[in-house]
User: What shape does this take?
Amino acid sequence: MTNRVYNFSGGPAMLPIPVMETVQKEFLDFHGLGASIVEISHRLPVFIDIIETTKSLFRELTGLPNNYKVLFMHGGAQMQFSAVPLNLMSMKSHKGSYFITGRWGTLAENEARKYGNTEILMDGKEFEYRQIPQYDTSSLDQDSSYAHMTTNNTLYGTRWHQFPDTGNVPLVADATSDILSREMDYSQFGIVYAGLQKNLGTSGTGLVVVREDLLGHALPETPKLLDYALFDEHNSLPNTINVFAVYVMCLVLEWVKEQGGVPEMEKLAEKKSSLLYEILDNSELYSSVAHPKHRSTMNVTFHFPQEELLQKFLTESDNEGLFGLMGHAMVGGARASIYNAMPLEGVDALAQFMIEFERKNG
Ligand SMILES: Cc1ncc(COP(=O)(O)O)c(C=O)c1O
Assistant: This one.
């Protein structure tokens, strides 16, 4: 593989090479069918097998309790910003409560307002989202329909190290940018959802893990294709599913399992991110965006003292095959997204580049 770069993009992001090689190998003729997996009916047993394998691999890798359903839905993560209130808002006090720790949480709350009342439990805006603010969960209204959080804040490079205990209020987590990168006890959550484009495969489809008792509460105006109960009833096939996305996710999960599962992914993520944070902590040039107590192991964000140095950094790193390091427009600076598929060698190469860049420009 000669001209592949190390791809630090925020998402869609790097996929494991063996996954892409399998896709390439199987694309014209899937397992002797004489047709591609994207050319056959999503209702044929050969595809149903893929859905079932994907769900059971996910259950196995996460230790998902039996009373949770695994759904595949259209529209990626942001579609869930609408689906969550549409499916849960009818419960209890018709109010969605939001922990705002970054841009995605803000957008989720804005969307929910269209379907009912919302309440902001805390907002990290005053800290420029560089940290997760303290919140005393004892003040949470136990009559809320649900409480929504973002486990990892992709733009700012922060994450919750410990999830809030919301008591009887179902906790809903957008885990798009750290799913399968750390061990999580799913029984703490009512719903966990994620767009597939970072640690699970390709964009445009969402994984939704939902506790059984939260099915069947959709508001009457809920569009058919956003109703969790309907997706559950039809095994995620109320219409034509994104066959390719599920197929790739299946291969990604097989790869994660071969690597040693989520515990190994977590160790690797700690190792990769520590390499970069150590450089930031010892640097006179780079400054870390995220507060050390709330740093992400998936997105490492840093600023430069001058815009020209940032531009120089981006151009030179790109020339070295270190691709996609520009920070999000709302945060500026640089961001190294180091999801599960980023090998340690890629982070090592970036670390060496950063040290050398500081030596020359610091
Ligand atoms: C935490 C989080 N939530 C939501 C989204 C939006 O995902 P999508 O483009 O699949 O709607 C992203 C995308 O980067 C994200 O990181």
Remarks:
- DSSP finds nine helices and 14 strands in the chain.
